[in-house]
TrEMBL record:
InterPro entries: NAD(P)-bd_dom_sf, SDR_fam. One of its GO terms (biological process) is fatty acid elongation. It comes from the Bacteria. Belongs to the short-chain dehydrogenases/reductases (SDR) family. Its EC number is 1.1.1.100. This is Short-chain dehydrogenase/reductase SDR. Signal peptide: none annotated. The keyword Oxidoreductase applies.
Length: 253
């Protein structure tokens, strides 16, 4: 089998925003390779859903906080590409991440290391590892956060490393321009998922507070972000690179 479909990798693709990115890309005819951390059942269900709609997908286990596994992961990606007869990757979406809401004065070194390892180091080193597989003319999207623009209580560690990813995005856009690879960051606002314990989705008081400070009058939904990322990757947007694009419905304008 030889594929002419576009191929994407989406980290953290089995739940929430990542799942929506995977589904929206699949609707555009992209074949996604997505990662999950622990919930293999959800990953298998997503692959089945895509295949039932005529697409192709592969789910691979990955802990983006363990860079020692990235060589083996890259080998698994190469194996999937070989089975599909695909020459390489067209898109990479660095979506996997973890939250932290410990106040600055109480955050531990262990917590800080975990934020760095997953939210920045993992993005940096995984992109580096997969770069030889990304075709010239491809695109990379890094998922960051609205809290790099405005201050959110008890988000200092999380926001710091998401901000670092936005700086990395600009440097990658510069360095990879010679290969015609675009690199942008998409920054969601408060989104109703299970992230941060589902606080935006499940807490009516927080939900109302977000709604009242958002121009479009509600929190974001996973499909809002998934649609934005898929459009950036598959639309006529290749002249956009090195940019931070906020998808927040106008949160805290």
């Amino acid at each position: 089998m030889s594929s002419t479909a576009k191929i994407a990798i989406v980290t953290g693709g089995s739940r929430g925003i990542g799942r929506s990115i995977v589904l929206n890309l699949a609707k555009q005819g992209v074949w996604p390779i997505f990662t999950y951390h622990t919930r293999a059942d959800e990953a298998r269900a997503l692959v089945s859903e895509i295949e039932q709609n005529g697409g192709k997908a592969v789910a691979l286990q990955l802990d983006t906080g363990k860079s020692s596994t990235f060589d083996a992961f890259a080998d698994s990606v190469k194996a999937a590409l070989a089975i599909w007869g695909a020459p390489g990757l067209d898109y990479l979406v660095n979506n996997a991440g973890i939250s932290n809401h410990t106040p600055f004065a109480q955050i531990t070194e262990e917590e800080l290391d975990q934020q760095y390892t997953v939210n920045f180091k993992g993005v940096f080193l995984l992109t580096q590892k997969l770069l030889p597989l990304i075709q010239n003319g491809g695109s990379i999207v890094n998922i960051t956060s609205g809290v790099t623009r405005f201050v959110n209580p008890n988000s200092s560690a999380y926001a710091t490393f998401k901000g670092a990813v936005e700086v990395l995005t600009r440097y990658l856009a510069h360095d990879l321009g010679a290969r015609n690879i675009t690199v942008n960051s998409v920054a969601p606002g408060a989104t109703a998922t299970d992230f941060s314990g589902g606080v935006v989705r499940d807490n009516p008081e927080i939900n109302q507070m977000v709604s009242s400070s958002t121009a479009l009058g509600r929190p974001g939904l996973p499909e809002d972000i998934g649609g934005a990322v898929a459009s950036l990757l598959t639309g006529e947007t290749h002249w956009i690179t090195g940019q931070r694009i906020e998808a927040s419905g106008g949160l805290r304008l």
